[in-house]
Specification:
By secondary structure, this protein is mostly beta strands. The chain has no helices and 12 strands.
Length: 155
């Protein structure tokens, strides 16, 4: 008697990051003081001589379209966002973009200050003592892609 063994193979489709973009998740943000002593602070300084550096941590941000800088602002190299994405500030009737000092799949550094611009391409002014939020959006501003992380400007 002869036994026949039949094998059944199941092929699972596994999406890679190039096939499917992960939904970006902002896990934390940290505002660093532009003044001595440098380090984390609880609120963002109003735009002035120097910008606050905001460190945004999370996952699924996508990698920068340009691995090298496309210019400088306030002594920082400026990078492009991931293709099809951007980081923006919302709240109090504002929709603002600021220079990006670093963009990786898990880490974004933003210069929050006088070099930020509103969607209308006019200089943006954050009001003192108000709440705002960071979020990742589509580059065409059609919709938000991530959760929001709130911050306050100093009174």
């Amino acid at each position: 008697m002869r036994r026949t063994v039949r094998a059944v193979f199941i092929v699972l489709g596994i999406a890679t990051t190039s096939q499917a973009h992960a939904q970006p998740v902002i896990e934390s943000l940290e505002i660093l003081s532009p003044w001595f002593p440098f380090g984390p602070v609880t609120c963002a300084s109003p735009p002035g001589v120097r910008s606050n550096l905001v460190v945004i941590r999370g996952r699924g941000f996508g990698n920068s379209a340009s691995p090298t800088s496309t210019g400088t602002a306030e002594g920082y190299y400026i990078f492009d966002p991931a293709p099809g994405r951007n980081i923006a500030i919302g709240g109090n009737g504002q929709h603002i973009h600021c220079p990006i000092a670093l963009w990786t799949d898990y880490h974004i550094n933003v210069l929050l200050g006088r070099t930020c611009v509103a969607i209308s391409r006019t200089p943006a002014t954050l009001q003192i003592g108000r709440s705002y939020y960071f979020g990742i959006e589509r580059s065409n501003h059609a919709r938000w892609l991530s959760n929001f992380k709130a911050f306050r400007t100093c009174p």
